[in-house]
Amino acid sequence: MNALVAFEERLQQELGSVVLGLQPVIRALAIAVVARGHLLLQGAPGLGKTLLSKSLAASLRGVFKRVQGTSDLMPADITGVHAYDAEKRQFVFRPGPVFADVLLVDEINRAGPKTQSALLEAMEERQVTVDRQNYELPENFLVVATQNPREFEGTFPLPESQLDRFMLRVELSYPTREDELAIVARYGNTDAHARGEQKEQLPPLDLVAVRQAVEQVHIAPELSGYVIDLAAASRSHAHVSLGLSTRGVLALVRAARIAAGMRGGDFVTPDDVKQVAPLVIPHRLMLAPEALLEGVTEQTITQQLLDRTPVPR
């Protein structure tokens, strides 16, 4: 069993024993961790997003921090500030919650655009700049952000540059009746967060091994061309005003390689690309006004791109 397969199975076992019925979400988390990407979870409140993030940090032996998005949240509340220390008689830096291995930004679209932008540098360059000084973030820094559906009151749409920095977006739906029965049976008389903190932890060296394993997964030039053709098709689609960026192309290639490795493959197939495309493409598409009027969604357009773009042999 290669390192990628073992890593996903272990993560499914660890997190799946705490958060029930979210296997596809855990798989997306595993891809994001290996790729050092960031994950955006979209769904209604109360579906286990916080518990999932805390359990991930515990499994990876990482530091977990949480930020609650509100309309009065300021950028300094995330990055940190320089405060005067009377004993030292100088200003010292007080790190914000962004200095963590797993940062959960809950309801990110309730924060204003200025505060949302405070995460741009951290997500892309893994550093923050405060008062013209740069501060490095942890090596395995990962943002898991949640956002409510757009029709919820008091939400601000994320800017395109912010969305593009999320490698994957996962839509969370309500659990099935069987899963919800299991949740009630397990957590009806206990604290889910307390139980989640007691889980066995993954050895930290696993991440080094799995990231090296990705380098052994081959992607043929034809498959790279297929991904570029998908991007080109999105940019010329009649219902799209802003298509897939080059950052999105790279994210799709990385996610496909990791997905291929997690199924035990040595090379990427078109099915691997199609499997991860609904996680990588939709949130990066900016729809034209007529698409909104006709009720066309990003998911619909993504499926059209996959159906219409010729697949290499």
Provide tags for this entry.
16% strand; AAA+_ATPase; alpha/beta; 15 helices; 313 residues; Helicase, Ruva Protein, domain 3; 11 strands; ChlI/MoxR_AAA_lid; Rossmann fold; ATPase; five-stranded parallel β-sheet
Percentage of residues in helical conformation: 40-55%
Care to count the β-strands?
A: 11
Q: Please work out how many helical segments DSSP would assign.
A: 15
Radius of gyration: 20 Å
Q: How many domains make up the 3D coordinates?
A: 2
GO molecular function, one term: ATP hydrolysis activity
Protein name: ATPase
InterPro entries: AAA+_ATPase, ATPase_AAA-3, CbbQ/NirQ/NorQ/GpvN, ChlI/MoxR_AAA_lid, P-loop_NTPase
Organism: Steroidobacter agaridevorans
Layout of helices and strands, plus pairs?
Elements: H1 3-16, H2 23-35, E1 39-42, H3 49-59, E2 64-68, H4 76-79, E3 80-85, E4 90-95, E5 102-106, H5 113-116, H6 120-125, E6 127-130, E7 133-136, E8 142-147, H7 160-164, E9 168-171, H8 177-187, H9 192-196, H10 206-214, H11 221-235, E10 240-242, H12 246-262, H13 270-280, E11 286-287, H14 289-294, H15 298-308
Parallel strand pairs: 1-8, 1-9, 2-5, 5-8
Antiparallel strand pairs: 3-4, 6-7, 10-11
Helix pairs in contact: 1-2, 2-12, 11-12, 12-13
Structural account:
The protein has about 325 residues and is of the alpha/beta class. The protein folds into 2 domains: about 180 residues, P-loop containing nucleotide triphosphate hydrolases (Rossmann fold); about 90 residues, Orthogonal Bundle (Helicase, Ruva Protein, domain 3). It is about 45% helix and about 15% strand. The protein contains 15 helices and 11 strands. The strands form 4 sheets. It has a 5-stranded parallel β-sheet with strand order 2-5-8-1-9. It has a two-stranded antiparallel ribbon with strand order 3-4. The longest helix is centred in the C-terminal third of the chain and has 17 residues. About 40% of the residues are buried. InterPro entries: AAA+_ATPase (IPR003593), ATPase_AAA-3 (IPR011703), CbbQ/NirQ/NorQ/GpvN (IPR050764), ChlI/MoxR_AAA_lid (IPR041628), P-loop_NTPase (IPR027417). This is ATPase. It holds the Pfam family AAA_lid_2. GO terms for molecular function: ATP binding; ATP hydrolysis activity.
